[in-house]
Specification:
413 residues; alpha/beta; eight-stranded mixed sheet; eight-stranded parallel sheet; 16 helices
């Protein structure tokens, strides 16, 4: 959002708003009143209080309205790409094979360590622009491509700067336990010591960390090692989350549940026991269909079991250079419908209220409600069905982010 973005204050009317997207409102909603960056009134225009009858008006022209979108799992800041590895996978190599040969995450680590902070910011800004144009109003950005204190600090500083300069809510997640850096080859426990005793305390003290993530997997870190990172995060009062069940079931989800993690993400191989633990802990299941697609996986997450257990399901892009080179949350939404058979309602909830909950932003994002920050989108769409049907479209006509009009295609009409 540029400094010239105009306030959205006034009465937005001629809208189509579903009651399920609103908090604390009954009856029909076809108008939204915005004042000082917040939603000050919701309801039917015919019943608007007197002070709104003379307020400046914006004609929504029958637009379908949703809360601002939330992308709750991305790796947006990095250098280089991994197109060569994609070709290797097409030729038959597996993700695990490439990682064990020194590629995968470590190839991105090498490029990212060499890049300057300004270069990383410029590249990430260009990627972020596409998500913002789609109506993303909050986004998580993980570190994990530095794997030493100086480089992880650089990534998290860039993530904070992206939020400030682009006017979007960014939640930063420290993912030091993403892969074993080459200088610690054969010494995984020593690297976990460095994370817990040096990296995490320093970065948290500098205000760069909102949450802590770990990659619990056969090619990454064991349950015991992840538990040590979670204990260090808990001692610092930080939320935790976990990459879990992507390639195997190691019991990581159960560990995440014991630490009351915000979410467990991927989950293709999560067990019934893990699902029960997530439900009991109030966790969100974050599904990442773009990674499933890019890796040509054949075992989808157990959506039916998650649904039956009442575990909230979020959908995220997982944008990263290796296993999810997708620059669109809208594309991921279609993938979730096509590959995982999520319903339209589940997809919309998955990129609004459940995604917000996965980031600890449920009080400010993901729903429309009086007193909430004004994050909402106007779509030229007949219904929510369009969000599952179209691949990467439609983009919202109007984006109101933080009470300011960040995008307004209607003005060009």
């Amino acid at each position: 959002m540029t400094a010239s973005a105009l306030p959205a204050d006034g009465l937005w009317h001629a809208l189509r708003v579903e009651a399920t997207l609103c908090e604390g409102v009954t009856g029909d909603v076809d108008a939204i009143g915005v004042r000082d960056g917040r939603i000050a009134w919701l309801g039917a225009l015919a019943g608007a209080p007197a002070q709104w009858r003379t307020a400046p008006r914006r004609d929504g022209r029958g637009a379908y309205v949703t809360p601002g979108l939330v992308d709750c799992h991305t790796h947006l800041v990095y250098a280089g790409d991994r197109a060569v590895e994609f070709a290797q996978r097409l030729a038959g190599a597996s993700y695990a094979d490439i990682a064990r040969a020194g590629g995968g995450i470590l190839s991105t680590v090498r490029a990212t360590r060499e890049a300057s902070e300004d270069a990383l910011f410029a590249a990430a800004s260009e990627r972020l622009a596409g998500f913002l144009a789609e109506g993303v109003c909050a986004i998580e950005i993980k570190s994990g491509y530095g794997l030493d204190l100086a480089s992880e600090r650089k990534l998290l500083r860039v993530a904070r700067r992206l939020g400030t300069e682009h006017g979007v809510d960014v939640r930063t997640t420290f993912l030091g336990a993403h892969a074993l850096p080459p200088e610690f080859a054969g010494r995984a426990d020593d690297y976990i010591d460095a994370i817990c005793n040096e990296m995490l305390p320093a970065l948290a003290n500098e205000g760069l960390v909102d949450a802590v993530d770990v990659f619990c997997e056969t090619i990454a870190f064991s349950v015991a090692q992840c538990e040590r990172v979670f204990a260090a995060a808990a001692a610092l009062g930080l939320d935790v989350k976990m990459h879990a069940g992507q390639l195997s079931d190691m019991g990581g989800v159960e560990l995440a549940a014991r630490f009351r993690a915000r979410s467990a993400d991927h989950l293709e191989h999560v067990s019934t026991r893990g699902i029960d633990a997530m439900r009991a802990a109030g966790m969100v299941a974050v599904l990442l269909p773009a990674a499933y697609y890019a890796l040509r996986d054949t075992q989808p997450p157990p959506v039916g079991a998650l649904r039956a257990a009442g575990v909230p399901i979020a959908v995220a892009s997982d944008h990263n250079p290796g296993t999810a080179p997708v620059r669109s949350l809208l594309v991921a939404m279609n993938m979730a419908a096509t590959l995982f058979r999520l319903t339209v309602g589940e997809i919309l909830d998955g990129v609004t209220r459940h995604a917000a909950r996965a980031l600890g932003l449920e009080a400010t994002h993901g729903m429309l409600g009086i007193g909430r920050p004004a994050h909402f989108l106007l779509w030229d769409a007949p219904s929510a069905d369009a969000f599952a049907y179209w691949i990467g479209a439609p983009r919202p006509r109007v984006v109101v982010r933080g009470g300011r009009v960040a995008r307004d295609a209607m003005r060009a009409d």
